[in-house]
Design brief:
Blueprint lengths: L3 H16 L4 H9 L5 H8 L8 H11 L3 H18 L3 H13 L6 H8 L5 H13 L6 H10 L3 H13 L6 H10 L3 H14 L6 H15 L3 H18 L2 H18 L2 H17 L3 H17 L3 H17 L3 H17 L3 H17 L3 H17 L3 H18 L2 H15 L4 H18 L2 H20 L1
Length: about 450
């Protein structure tokens, strides 16, 4: 039986016990004939018993007159939580097999949870087929999962038509998934119009659809149209009183304005996002916006303001236990202090950021921070330590097959050892050059070619 069942069952026991006006001791006497068992009941209700024994479940079910359907819901909730927590489709499949082998039949919610873990359309379609063969009717969530996994817009539209022909009304999630599959502005605009006329139960979803549309336009390089769409979404969300969407959309707008080089406008959008996030007591979005603002201020050479924003972002991230943003803010602040020559402070921050990155298993972040640390150690004259950091960063980059990262590390590593070992430096530069040729990075390619030429000329003149 899934471990989450214990938590669900405990919540059910507490609710029914309180409805009947019983203390834990009184229930212990009724169910087990022993008041001392109240401790076990308290542990169950507080989620400390993950897998209650069958006789415990039976005794409490009879004492509280719990309906069979309620027990089944606890089982379903437990297994679906497990599926949603799976890190891959294969793992979710394995969990479902274990649940089925214990005699628990899957329902529509179970299959939908599994479909949400599908890594491609074929996997999602196989779940849909399995549902039909099991005699379980698909619902809106099923079709939404299929649309979200569609390989292109035509396929998504085909699923949408099938959904309607099955008599299942599309909801906001359906239209949002369709917008994300749109391949041009006209398609997305058509879906948005249909959503506005069809989904009348919750107008707040229109804001989310506009955000998806703006993201699509941004990916297509239509930055002006994307900016207008984000601004429209902010206005609609504000008129609806949807402050959560306001802060979320302002942050996306700020990112886009930064990309466009509109730094003053981006700074204003970040600051408004932070203000709204604080108004609704949403520290997650405040931390997110503070990181974006700090990075922008750093680019703007507003060092004091940037440092303050980084430190505030780190503080909030730690308060809400969000290691991802804490690690990012630590890296940004370390880079800033390193440029200011505050190398000892920066080194400590780099190492803290690496520690968090390793703990949350964000290998790309670790590779990035190691590069920053290696450059700092080089500047401090700690070349042996720097080389270890460069080599570790390369090792991770190769595992992740991140060509652009490797090209940069090879270049920086070469420049670090150029005086001590010119031949090794040339070898590293040639690796960087090869990658830059393949990925089409003309600027770095030209710099590396020039550096190799200068080194070889120096070798000839020696």
């Amino acid at each position: 039986m899934p471990a989450q069942f214990g938590q669900k069952f405990g919540e059910l026991v507490r609710k029914r016990r309180e409805e009947k006006g019983l203390s834990a001791g009184q229930l212990a006497v009724i169910a087990f004939g022993d008041e001392a068992k109240r401790t076990r009941i308290s542990e169950l209700e507080n989620g400390k018993v993950t897998r209650p024994q069958a006789r415990t479940i039976q005794a409490l079910t009879e004492a509280l007159e719990l309906p069979h359907s309620a027990i089944e819901q606890c089982k379903a909730g437990g297994r679906n939580d497990l599926l949603l927590a799976a890190i891959s489709f294969d793992q979710a499949r394995s969990i479902l097999s274990q649940v089925e082998s214990s005699g628990i039949a899957p329902d529509a919610a179970t299959f939908n949870a599994l479909a949400s873990k599908a890594e491609n359309f074929d996997q999602a379609q196989s779940i849909f087929s399995q549902m039909e063969s099991s005699g379980i009717a698909p619902d809106a969530a099923t079709f939404n999962a299929l649309v979200s996994k569609a390989e292109n817009f035509d396929q998504a539209q085909s699923i949408f038509s099938q959904m309607e022909s099955s008599g299942i009304a599309p909801d906001a999630a359906t239209f949002n998934a369709l917008v994300s599959k749109a391949e041009n502005f006209d398609q997305a605009q058509s879906i948005l119009h249909q959503m506005e006329t069809s989904v009348v139960d919750n107008p707040f979803h229109v804001t989310q659809a506009l955000q998806n549309l703006a993201g699509l336009l941004s990916k297509q390089g239509k930055l002006i149209e994307a900016e207008m769409t984000y601004r429209n979404a902010v206005e609609i969300a504000r008129n609806l009183g949807d402050t959560f969407s306001v802060t979320q959309t302002l942050h996306s707008l700020a990112n886009l304005l930064t990309l466009q080089g509109k730094l003053d406008e981006a700074e204003e959008a970040y600051r408004r996002s932070i203000e709204v996030g604080q108004e609704i007591a949403n520290p997650f979005y405040a931390a997110q916006a503070l990181l974006g603002l700090a990075n922008l201020l750093s680019r703007h050479e507003k060092s004091d303001e940037a440092e303050e924003a980084y430190r505030r972002g780190i503080e909030i991230s730690q308060e809400i236990d969000n290691p991802f943003y804490a690690a990012q803010a630590l890296l940004g602040l370390a880079n800033l202090l390193s440029r200011q020559g505050r190398l000892d402070e920066a080194e400590k921050l780099y190492r803290r950021s690496i520690e968090i990155g390793e703990r949350i298993q964000n290998q790309f972040h670790v590779a990035q921070v190691l590069l920053g640390l290696a450059k700092l150690l080089t500047e401090q004259g700690k070349l042996d330590e720097a080389e270890k950091a460069y080599q570790k960063s390369i090792e991770i980059g190769e595992k992740l097959r991140n060509s652009r990262h490797l090209a940069t590390v090879f270049l920086c590593y070469a420049l670090a050892i150029i005086e001590r070992s010119p031949s090794d430096a040339i070898e590293l530069l040639e690796k960087s050059l090869d990658i830059n040729r393949r990925v089409g990075n003309r600027r770095l390619k030209a710099f590396v070619e020039r550096t190799i030429g200068e080194l070889r000329e120096q070798e000839l003149n020696r």
